[in-house]
Write a structure and sequence with these properties.
By secondary structure, this protein is mostly helical. It contains 2 helices and 3 strands. It starts with a strand and ends with a strand.
Amino acid sequence: MSHLMRNGAVVEPDEVLKMRKSTDKLADDLRKTSKELINSTEQLNNNGFQDANFDRLYQVITENKKHLEELDKVMLDFSKYLKFIEENIRELIEGDPFKKSNITVR
């Protein structure tokens, strides 16, 4: 497998791809879980299931709904960044050897 090496650090495009796939799966799992949690809590609230503990839980979940949406956006942006990195590494590996650089392609 070809890889880039800079100052002794090896970067393989397949490793970046694995990281992106893991990040995408994590984002998807978080999205599904938070959606189910929010929907279930809202359904319980609408059905009249309320006590002091539930009121606090409902408040925490609804207050954090925006944060979960922001986290989803950040993870999507990170995934796009990883895809960009992976594509650039592959392009560099397939290109000409680096001239006057401390980066080597093997």
